[in-house]
Fold:
Amino acid sequence: MKEIKVGVFGVNRGYVFSRHAQVTGLKLVALCDSYEKKLNEVCNDLKVPGYTDFDKFLEHDMDAVILSNYFHQKTPYAIKCLRAGKHVMAETIPCFTMGECVALVREVEKSKKIYMFAENYPYLNYNQEMRRLFKAGKVGKFIYGEGEYVHPIAPTSYNLMSPGENHWRNWIPATYYSSHSLAPIMYITETWPKKVNGFVSPHSVGLSDRAVRMTARRNDLGSMIVLRMDNGALVKLLQFSLRGHGIWTRIHGSAGQMENTRIGEWHYLRVRKEQYLQDKKEPKEHIYMPDFPVHNDLAWKHDGCDFFMGYHFAEAIQKNKQPFLNVYRAAAMSAVAIQAYRSVLADSSTMEIPDFTNESVRREYANDHWSPDPEKHTSKQPWPSIEGNVKPNKEGLAFARRLWKQKGRESYRVLGE
Structure:
């Protein structure tokens, strides 16, 4: 098969993609980051050239680019890559405004290049098994689902992951980190979100947790999102910095229920079926550790779900066929994050999730640049907390600044963080 030459933009999280490139059918040929010291370290380790200038990086001989830069800056770089004739894979939510959703979809259609959303959670072993079971009709019609990504982080680690008061982790609205919760449900059931209601636990409530108080954060603690899907199913999403780490997917169907286990090893799957009107040929409850559907041993050796992002990106390029996590699903998940925050600020009112496959619908949102980015704030733009222009907690900011100074990270601009 034709060798796929790939470059990676952002060397922190991008280092994972870089290490996996060879085993997933991609050949790493270049790296790019604005933080030269870190870039040189990774380039020396991986034996590839590095660039601090993105435009020069795009001139390198390569077929595709993996975008692992800042959370809220994916779309402009993706469009540059597509216009340069490169396939694109981008992680986190790919679009930060509804207007960016429209611009990205249009550019992918125009370029005819492969675009993949690098969301890894659908590819966890139990989520891939739930997709297999659902498609085989084992739990019937999708009725209700839950996705959970609760990920508290120790204050020292959080501050070092968020170098600088204006780093995106310190201000991103609580609804925006929702694709880890939503993507598995869309992957398993192949349903689409149509309406959204958002709720948050405010910043001031989060300060009751000393671990949160000892950071430079000024965003809200966490969010709950309620969705109505295109088949009528209800979905609840929960994320982000609550205590009690949990990564969980739950699917209720008309003939059974599936979820990964909450207690002990969370990679196990629990399937429960009350067979009221059927011959009882199967156990009521079955708990087991599912394999990955392909390359099981290789996947476990290479971070499990992360392996499959590169694998499916390479597969899509080789087959010249858009992947499951295509630009339309990427735009829909971005819209859920954005519209859920709009809902929060409108007393949790219902908001629509547009159909970005439809150009007439896209025209309605093409100039929608509503954004909570504090660097772009105007009287018409929202602050990233429901409580307004929140300032970092003084105790936490002082602690963070000491850490940044000790670790030499106060001026870090590592794009992949």
In short: Confidence is low (pLDDT under 50) at residues 410-417.
